[in-house]
Amino acid sequence: MYIDRQLAGPWGRDRHRYTRGPFEENAAAEFGYQGKATPQQIYRQGLRDLKGFDQLAPTGQDEKLKQIETTLFFSLLRQNTIEGMFCDPMHGGNIDMVGWQLIGFPGPRMSNYDDVDKHFGEAFRPKPASLSLVTGHKVIPSEDQE
Amino acid sequence: MKTLPAVDVVIVGGGWTGLLMAKELGSRTALSVVVLERGGPRKTVDYADDMDELDYAVRLRMMQDLSQETVTFRHNLSERALPLRQHGSFLHGAGIGGSGEHWNGQMPRILPDCFELLSRSTAKYGAKRLPEDHSIEDWGITYDELEPHYSRVEVLVGVSGKAGNLRGKQMEGGNVFEGWRSAEYPTPPTKTPYFSTLFRDAAKVLGYHPYPTPAATISQAYTNPDGVARAGCTYCGFCERFGCMIGAKAQPTNILLPVIQKRKNVSIRTGAWVRRIVNEATQSGGKARGVTYIDADGEEIFQRAELVVLASWTLNNTRLLLLSKIGEPYEPATGKGNLGRNLTHQVYFPAATAFFEKPLNRFMGAGAAGIRINDLDGDVFDHSGLPFLRGGTLEAVSLGHRPIANFGVVPHVVKTGWGSEWKKAGLHYYDRTGNIMFYGEHLAYRGNFMDLDPTYKNGLGDPLLRLTLDWRDNEQRMAEFVTSKTVEIARAMGAKEVTSFPGLRSYDATRNQSTHIQGGTIMGSSPDRSVINPYLQHWQVSNLFVLGASAFPQNGSANPTLTILALTYRTADAIVDRYLKSPAALA
Question: Model's pTM, two decimal places?
C-alpha cells in the first residue's frame, strides 16, 4: 500500500529528478543513479523477474532475494520497505505506528524540553503520536498534492 | 523582453545573504531595493506541520528541484562529467530563505589563521611542505578585521554558546582554541543530550577540551536589536532538512523577513529566475546595468539597476558570472583566469559509529545541540612528523535521530543488510547508536574548479555548471589520522562496538557530506589572484557585489554560515558608508 502510493506519486514518476540526456547507464556508483528508467519502470521489470516468488517456501524466497541483492530494484525495495515501516501513517505505512513502537520512536513531539537532559542511560518511551494527532489537523502528504 | 524602470539595487537570491543585505540597505538607506528569488515564497507558519521525515528529509521537499537544474560532476579533466540526477553530497535549498531554512544552525567561527592560510603556512612550514598542486590563498582580510562583524551576527541570531577566549582570556568550558571574541555569546549554551554528554566526559578524560556547539537553535527566548523575538528551542529533533515549527532556529524567514516586510523601499519577487547579469563593457572592465530573468508567468524581464548584488547560492554565483561573461574563466592547464577556481568542499564524515549497551533516547535533540572539540583543528596541534597539514572539528551532535535515515545501522558482526538477523540487530541497535562526526578543512588545489558543462542544459536551455573535484593525499591522510583518534574517544565513551570510517577514497557524489561548498568567485587582495576584493566587490565591475561562500578562497573547516553573514555585514557597511558616497572601486 505504502509503496503503491509512492510509485504513483511524484517520486515514482521522477517528477524532481534530472532526466535530460544523454544517459550514461554504466557510470560508476559515485555518480549516483544515471539511468533513464523511473522507479515505476524499475519496479515493473523487477517484479516480472520475481514471478512465482509468492509460491516459494521461505528458504526459496531468501535464495531468490540473494540472487538479486545487488540490483537497483532490490535496493529500492529495501529502502522503500524501511520507509513504509517507519514513515508517518499518513503515507499509508507504519499502521497504528507499529514500526515506531518497535524502535521506541515517539513520532513528532512539540517539546522534549523537560526530558532532553534527563533519563540518562534508561529508555524514555513516550506514547507515539502521528503528525495529524500532534498538530490537531489533517496533514496532506506530498504524494497526494503533486 | 519587457524592460522595467531602474531600481537602485537589485539583489539576486533571497537566502541568508540576499535578505541580510536587503534588510541592511532597506533599514539604513532610502534606496529602492528589489530581491529576485527563483523559488517560491515562504513564511514561518509554513513549518507548523512539517515534521514528517519522509516528505522533508527523504524526499527533500525544501531542496532545489533538480528536474529543472542540477550540476555536472567529474573527478578530473580526463573524465566525462555526468549530471547529479538526484541530490547527494550536498543539499541546496530553494525558495525564500534558501538553505538557511533547513540547516542545523551550527555557528562556529573560523580559526584566525585560516584567513592567512597561505602566508602563515608558508612561514611556518616552508613552501615545500604545502601540497604540490595546491592553490591556497590568503583571504585579503584578517580575523581581527572580521571580529566585530562576527559579534554582530551572533547578536542578530542570539547564538547560544560559551566563550573560550574572551578578549584574549582563556575561559574554561568554552572553545579555548577559538580566536578572541569581544563579547560572551548572547544566550547560554543549549542543553546537552545524553549521547553528547558521553562524548564530553570521554573527551575530558582523554585530555581534550570539549565545549558546547555554538547554536542558532537558541537555548532560551531572545529578542534581537531589530526587535525580533523568538522562543527557545524545545529539542523536538526536527531541524536538519526542516524549517523550525516554533522559530527557535534562526532562519532568514524568521529573523530577516519580518524586518524587511516593514520597509516600503524593499520588494521581493519570487518565481523570478535570473539568467544573466547585463554588463556593459567599459575601459575599466564593465558596468552592470541590471539583470534579466524569467518571471513566474514565463515572461522574460530586464530589470535595470544601479547596483547589482549577486547573492544566489555558492555554485550558482559562479555559474551566473560565467553565463554573463563577467571576468576571465579559470583554465587549469595554464592557471590563467580566476572565475571558477578554488572549488572546495569540507572533509566531512562519520569518523566513528559507536554502539552502546544502554538506550540513548536519541529522538530528542536539536541541530546544534552537541559537544565539539577543536584540539585536532587547524594548526592547534603539532603537525611535525605528520603526513598532512591542518585538521578539523570533532562533534557528537544530538540532532534528532530519524528512523528511516538511521534504521539498520548495525555492528560489523552482522554480515548482511537484510533478513531476520539484520532486522533483529537493527531493532536492538536503533536507539543505541551514535556517530562522531568530523568537519575537516579542505584545501584548494589547481585541479578542483568549476566551468560550464559542454553537454548538459537546464530547463531554460542554459548550460549547467560543471564541478571538477577530487580529494588529495592531504585529506585522505588527515581522515586516517582523525579516525584513529575518534575510535579511541568512542571506546572511552563506553561503546561496546565501534565501526571506524573506512577512509576517503575518490570523491563520492552520492554520500551526503554537508552543504558547505566554497569558492569560484574568491576574494583576495589582488585582482591577479581573485575575482572580488575584500569588500566582496567585483574587481572589474565596481557596481557588482558577490555575497556568499563563493568568496571563500578555501574551506575553513568550521561550518560557514556565520562567516558568510559576517562578511555580508562588512560589505553592507562598505556600501552604505563608502560606496554610496562615491560609487567606485573600494580597494
Answer: 0.98
